[in-house]
Amino acid sequence: MPGTREDNGIPLLHSDNDLNGYATRSTPSVMPIRGQRPRSSDAGNPYVGSKLALSNESEEEKPRNSTAAASDKESLDESQLLPQEFVVSFQNGGSPVVDIENGATRSSDVFRQSRCNAVYLDWKNITYTVPVKKKEKKALISRMYGRAEPGTLTAIMGPSGAGKTTLMNVLSGHYDKGYQGEVQVNGWVRDTELFNQQSCYVMQDDCLLPELTVREALTVGVQLRMPSLNRSKREQLVDEAMARWGLDICQHTRTSCLSGGQRKRLAISQELISNPPVIFLDEPTSGLDSISALRCVKVMKTLAAAGHTVLCSIHNPSAKLFSHFDRVVTEIASGEYGNLNKQLAKSFTPDYSEEVNEKKLDHPVLTEYGGKIMNKKEKAEEMELHRVHVNYFHQFVVLVKRCFLCVIRNKVATLLRLVAYIFIAGMMTVLFYDVGNSATRVISNAALFLLCLTMALFQSAMPTVLIFPTELTVLLREHRNCWYSPFMYYIARIITELPFTIFGPLSMMSFLYWTTGQPQEMWRAATVVMFVIQVGSVSQGLALVVSALSSIQTAVFLVLPVASPSFLFSGFFVQARHIPVAFRWIMETSHLYHGMQGLLEALYGRGRGELDCEENELCFLSDPEEVLRHLDVENIDISHKFLILIAMDLFYRLAAFLILKWRLRRKR
């Protein structure tokens, strides 16, 4: 356990193993007041007069040094009240609305919809290592101890590379593997899944969808995280959030057009709008000017005063920013200093501190609800109060609307995807006009439909392969903060791509089929169109696998190598009987091969009449059955080939989802 030493009102906590620990500073400007009563002017103010216990120390557990105890506001017992600056009721829940110019607060009925649970976060002996070479590991953080309490703003400071973000990821539960030590919530070992629903994590990078406006981005967050609100309250909540963070002047501006500071404030407001009890912010002031940074810290301070447990990492704060922090965790990136640390701990640590801290950290905390120590069952029930259960169908509807809105806003890409099909159809009409019923141009007709399938392949695969690499950071942030189920996001993305998968090939084939002189039976035309659409859908599923596996830098280059075997083994260039037996399995896994087989059977099979033979031409393939034998398409069941394509489509899409889910877990 770490020892403590108080020096001029600043308690220093450190590890007894190395200097890669931390120091905690309590701002000494506001002294705790015992038995303070609310002023008469505070009557009716919902943010004044509530009691918040910050410690469960009994009388015999208090430090013997009365002077130190009086100066440390963290040693309050259950009979003490917070000073006026921190006496903010959160029994009715919610964050007060903050005037970011002067830090003033005013009540809001919307922000008091659900109460904010008091959450104490303790971490003991946290060490996080990563492999660097075979059988070698490097410790990014080592033997970290500490506590974060409701009503306090805790800052994690340190130079670059000290491990601030790593510690934040461990404490927030986003690194649930690979670390040693223990993280406790309200005195109990943390349940990561439940804790993620009680907390939010604002990452250092601004992960926003560029097609949405500020109001739309906040509205989607409210719809997903607070589905019980009606439209008027939802709009009021969004208005309050924009006013709090100074975003109302740009509420109709797309996020891609925002300044760096506005993007940062929007990213923070998206997560805080649902009023989580625990708030983690990684470098919230990075990229902000001094005024915006001060406003940001003031809002965090007010959130802490409302009963939230707020932790943020910060690199190099100014003196003005530093004065707003209640506690500071300082990380040192200089490595270990041998056994001298134990000597330092013995020399500068009072004997009673270890005993006090040991008892303080190993007991369940005293909460304001009921005024008693919670047992495990009560703790679970208490934490459930803030847990929001969202209907999966509601998630699906909101995500589909958001995805379609992003597609519609991206007009250039949307139009190009549709125009490309029409343009290629026009070019192929010029080359293959009236080729469908000619006995002398059978091979050209087969080549035409191979090009149609190839067009469907690349037009479906190329845009799809960029979906997950471009949206992975947004998905990771929203999934970490429990906005929605990854499966609902995945289904919404598939539904969004369906119009391109269907209407693109449909428009191309509707124009191309009749202008190239193909058989006029409607069932043949419908079957050909269905095979082209299904081949495009399988290609999209294959692209989803590539997209889920790779980054944006490699995804585009992987499309051609992945699609090439299917193209080469389509059965058009080399027939199946001429391929070595050891490689025929590649042909069976080629969706272009099965598509060509079914498509040619629909064109030339099932009793089609003889083909036209031009004058002065020697026609060897005027009989459609002879054409099928020449193209190695015999005894083909069209429905069987179509079911194979459907099975391949489902397999690729399921594999893509499992890979995506694995990547989300791997990021943890």
From TrEMBL:
<keyword id="KW-0547">Nucleotide-binding</keyword>
<dbReference type="GO" id="GO:0016887">
    <property type="term" value="F:ATP hydrolysis activity"/>
</dbReference>
<feature type="domain" description="ABC transporter">
    <location>
        <begin position="121"/>
        <end position="356"/>
    </location>
</feature>
<dbReference type="GO" id="GO:0005886">
    <property type="term" value="C:plasma membrane"/>
</dbReference>
<dbReference type="Pfam" id="PF01061">
    <property type="entry name" value="ABC2_membrane"/>
</dbReference>
<dbReference type="InterPro" id="IPR017871">
    <property type="entry name" value="ABC_transporter-like_CS"/>
</dbReference>
<feature type="transmembrane region" description="Helical">
    <location>
        <begin position="488"/>
        <end position="514"/>
    </location>
</feature>
<keyword id="KW-0472">Membrane</keyword>
<dbReference type="InterPro" id="IPR050352">
    <property type="entry name" value="ABCG_transporters"/>
</dbReference>
<dbReference type="GO" id="GO:0005524">
    <property type="term" value="F:ATP binding"/>
</dbReference>
<feature type="transmembrane region" description="Helical">
    <location>
        <begin position="447"/>
        <end position="468"/>
    </location>
</feature>
<feature type="transmembrane region" description="Helical">
    <location>
        <begin position="415"/>
        <end position="435"/>
    </location>
</feature>
<keyword id="KW-0067">ATP-binding</keyword>
<feature type="transmembrane region" description="Helical">
    <location>
        <begin position="642"/>
        <end position="660"/>
    </location>
</feature>
<dbReference type="InterPro" id="IPR027417">
    <property type="entry name" value="P-loop_NTPase"/>
</dbReference>
<dbReference type="GO" id="GO:0140359">
    <property type="term" value="F:ABC-type transporter activity"/>
</dbReference>
<protein>
    <recommendedName>
        <fullName>ABC transporter domain-containing protein</fullName>
    </recommendedName>
</protein>
<dbReference type="Pfam" id="PF00005">
    <property type="entry name" value="ABC_tran"/>
</dbReference>
<keyword id="KW-0812">Transmembrane</keyword>
<feature type="transmembrane region" description="Helical">
    <location>
        <begin position="555"/>
        <end position="574"/>
    </location>
</feature>
<keyword id="KW-0813">Transport</keyword>
<feature type="region of interest" description="Disordered">
    <location>
        <begin position="1"/>
        <end position="78"/>
    </location>
</feature>
<dbReference type="InterPro" id="IPR003439">
    <property type="entry name" value="ABC_transporter-like_ATP-bd"/>
</dbReference>
<keyword id="KW-1133">Transmembrane helix</keyword>
<dbReference type="InterPro" id="IPR013525">
    <property type="entry name" value="ABC2_TM"/>
</dbReference>
<comment type="similarity">
    <text>Belongs to the ABC transporter superfamily. ABCG family. Eye pigment precursor importer (TC 3.A.1.204) subfamily.</text>
</comment>
<dbReference type="InterPro" id="IPR003593">
    <property type="entry name" value="AAA+_ATPase"/>
</dbReference>
<feature type="transmembrane region" description="Helical">
    <location>
        <begin position="526"/>
        <end position="549"/>
    </location>
</feature>
